[in-house]
């Protein structure tokens, strides 16, 4: 005897068929269908074809649970009561919530590639993270509805964090602009010396503390990004150091070229 009181030899397979569609009535291809019994044990499994149709079998009369899932859709579970004849079902899968957008530079609107994007819940737990694509785009798929914190940071830009609310169906779009702090940039020029020596450029604050250190590139160019407004000293060192004071305002781009002797 089985749990439902039906002798095993008297049980016969009964077909369960139907169609899986999205909330707009479009058939969902490749949806996974899993039939489980009252204890959660898998009984049968199938997948929808090009028209969203499926077929699977129950081992006999009884109550079962049919679980349907598909990429970019919220899963659905329905109770299936099987008697003596084939059961047909129509299952609707709603589109999964998500978050998407583009990361851009605030001053130029240029997309920022490889920005680090972190999504946390209201407890501060990280839900997901990723890097922005070549066009600054990002996507978090299948995110549960709710309120989250979206934090973005990228080299040479100031980080940004904002609150986003994700709905229950269509993805939420949230673009983010990252501001560039003040910038000191320029070139360090040397006498015509071969081979060209390495040039170290150091940025000091008003107290004489080192803020940043960089190496000038092969053409002598250097840059310090994301700086707070204030007074600094730029020190370029090769054979003999050169010290140049400079003052910058919030968000300013200031050029300072240095001649070494």
From TrEMBL:
Keyword annotations of the record: Secreted, Signal
Claim: Secreted is one of the keywords in the record: yes
Matches recorded under Pfam families: CarboxypepD_reg
InterPro entries: Carb-bd-like_fold (IPR013784), CarboxyPept-like_regulatory (IPR008969)
Domain of life: Bacteria
Signal sequence bounds: none
Protein family per UniProt: Belongs to the serine-aspartate repeat-containing protein (SDr) family.
Protein name: Carboxypeptidase regulatory-like domain-containing protein
Species: Amycolatopsis acididurans
């Amino acid at each position: 005897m089985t749990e439902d009181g039906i002798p095993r030899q008297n049980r016969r397979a009964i077909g369960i068929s139907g169609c899986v569609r999205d909330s707009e009535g479009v058939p969902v291809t490749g949806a996974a269908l899993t039939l489980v019994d009252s204890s959660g044990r898998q009984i049968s499994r199938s997948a929808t074809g090009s028209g969203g149709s499926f077929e699977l079998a129950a081992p006999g009369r009884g109550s079962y649970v049919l679980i349907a899932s598909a990429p970019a859709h919220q899963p659905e579970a329905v109770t299936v009561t099987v008697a003596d004849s084939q059961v047909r079902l129509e299952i609707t899968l709603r589109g999964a919530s998500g978050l998407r957008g583009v990361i851009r530079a605030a001053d130029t609107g240029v997309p920022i590639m490889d920005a680090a994007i972190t999504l946390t819940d209201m407890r501060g737990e990280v839900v997901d993270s990723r890097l922005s694509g070549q066009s600054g785009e990002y996507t978090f798929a299948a995110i549960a509805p709710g309120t989250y914190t979206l934090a973005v940071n990228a080299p040479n830009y100031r980080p940004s964090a904002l609150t986003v609310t994700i709905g229950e169906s269509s993805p939420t779009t949230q673009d983010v602009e990252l501001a560039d702090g003040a910038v000191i940039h320029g070139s360090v020029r040397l006498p015509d010396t071969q081979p060209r020596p390495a040039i170290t450029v150091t940025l000091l604050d008003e107290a004489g503390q080192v803020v940043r250190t960089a190496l000038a590139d092969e053409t002598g160019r250097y840059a310090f990004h994301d700086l707070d407004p204030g007074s600094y000293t730029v020190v370029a060192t090769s054979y003999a150091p050169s010290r140049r004071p400079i003052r910058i305002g919030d968000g300013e781009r200031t050029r300072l070229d240095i001649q070494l002797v």
